[in-house]
Automatic annotation (TrEMBL):
<feature type="domain" description="ABC transporter">
    <location>
        <begin position="4"/>
        <end position="238"/>
    </location>
</feature>
<keyword id="KW-0547">Nucleotide-binding</keyword>
<dbReference type="InterPro" id="IPR003593">
    <property type="entry name" value="AAA+_ATPase"/>
</dbReference>
<dbReference type="InterPro" id="IPR017871">
    <property type="entry name" value="ABC_transporter-like_CS"/>
</dbReference>
<protein>
    <recommendedName>
        <fullName>ABC-type quaternary amine transporter</fullName>
        <ecNumber>7.6.2.9</ecNumber>
    </recommendedName>
</protein>
<keyword id="KW-0813">Transport</keyword>
<dbReference type="GO" id="GO:0005524">
    <property type="term" value="F:ATP binding"/>
</dbReference>
<dbReference type="GO" id="GO:0016887">
    <property type="term" value="F:ATP hydrolysis activity"/>
</dbReference>
<dbReference type="InterPro" id="IPR027417">
    <property type="entry name" value="P-loop_NTPase"/>
</dbReference>
<dbReference type="GO" id="GO:0015418">
    <property type="term" value="F:ABC-type quaternary ammonium compound transporting activity"/>
</dbReference>
<dbReference type="InterPro" id="IPR050093">
    <property type="entry name" value="ABC_SmlMolc_Importer"/>
</dbReference>
<dbReference type="Pfam" id="PF00005">
    <property type="entry name" value="ABC_tran"/>
</dbReference>
<dbReference type="InterPro" id="IPR003439">
    <property type="entry name" value="ABC_transporter-like_ATP-bd"/>
</dbReference>
<keyword id="KW-0067">ATP-binding</keyword>
Length: 278
């Protein structure tokens, strides 16, 4: 089943150039799609069209088979988790109430909300005593975890994430990425995740969509993008850098696996890159 579909979508702001240019993309249920690309290529714009924060000028978007025109905005947003870099927890509310905010406005009972908050705080790798604290009593990484817990609270099928770990330090980011990967494997949500960090995109995405100037340059698994780039842009953007990122993330074993299955063009590309980085 297709959870999100963009068809020939276009967008420009004011009198500016085309930020999204006739873009089509289908995202299947349970995929973890990382939207990767240089600054300004339109990643955030595309993401925000899914929950109607930005309106396309042209083209069509469907969420769970229903056109976004036919979705009531509130119902659509309540059914989609949304995590951004500035997580925006309510400062005057305890963590448990921050997590339970959407279940509360959805009229869930207090005992259900408390149970759910406890489950979620564990799911994102924190202790239950966090629930009684206020946001100011948490580190940046802990706040991002609570942001993920809050996005999951109403059990949405789809989660949109816009550079959610961009503002935390390297160690916390690595832990958050691992936790998110685990949550995705466990819960099978459909995730659309914006990042400009190649290693993050390769590590998390079951599919990587590389954007450039409002269009998709290439969409595929990491091995395809690194070893079978379809355009010079993909080769420049991902070739050597992607290879190094894959190396650093320890995902080379999978890639070696593919090389060993006998694809000689991949072997040649691999040799070429290996010579350049060694
Ligand atoms: N509200 C706006 N008004 C005018 N121009 C905008 C607006 N929002 C974004 N833009 C422009 O649209 C283009 C795409 O922006 P967008 O935020 O979608 O890119 P991005 O790929 O997410 O970039 P980054 O990685 O830097 O966040 C940029 O040139 C940006 O300056």
């Amino acid at each position: 089943m297709i959870d999100i579909e963009f068809k020939e979508v276009c967008k420009h702001y004011n009198k500016g150039h085309q930020v999204i240019n006739n873009l089509s993309l289908q995202i299947e249920q349970g995929e973890f799609v990382t939207l990767l690309g240089p600054s300004g290529c339109g990643k955030t714009t595309l993401l925000k069209m899914v929950n109607k924060l930005i309106k396309p000028d042209d083209g069509h978007i469907w969420v769970k088979g229903t056109s976004i025109h036919d979705w009531h905005t509130t119902a659509l947003r309540r059914g989609i988790g949304y995590v951004i870099q500035q997580i925006g927890l309510f400062p005057h509310m305890r963590i448990k109430d921050n997590i339970s905010y959407v279940p509360m406005i959805n009229n869930m009972t207090k005992s259900f909300r408390e149970k759910r908050a406890r489950e979620l705080v564990h799911l994102v790798g924190l202790e239950e005593d966090m629930l009684e604290r206020y946001p100011r009593e948490l580190s940046g990484g802990q706040k991002q975890r609570i942001g993920v817990a809050r996005a999951l609270a109403a059990d949405p099928d789809i989660i949109l994430m816009d550079e959610p770990f961009g503002a935390v330090d390297e160690i916390a980011r690595t832990k958050l990425q691992e936790q998110l990967k685990h949550i995705h494997q466990q819960l099978g949500k459909t995730i659309l995740f914006v990042t400009h960090d190649i290693s993050e995109a390769l590590k998390l995405g079951t599919r990587i969509v590389l954007m450039h100037k409002g269009q998709i340059e290439q969409s595929g698994i990491k091995e395809e993008l690194i070893f079978q780039p379809k355009t010079p842009f993909v080769k420049d953007f991902l070739g050597l850098k992607g290879f190094k990122a894959a190396l650093n993330e320890g995902i080379m074993e999978q890639i070696y696996g593919d090389i060993l299955t006998g694809d000689t063009s991949m072997q040649a590309f691999y040799d070429q890159i290996n010579t350049r980085i060694s």
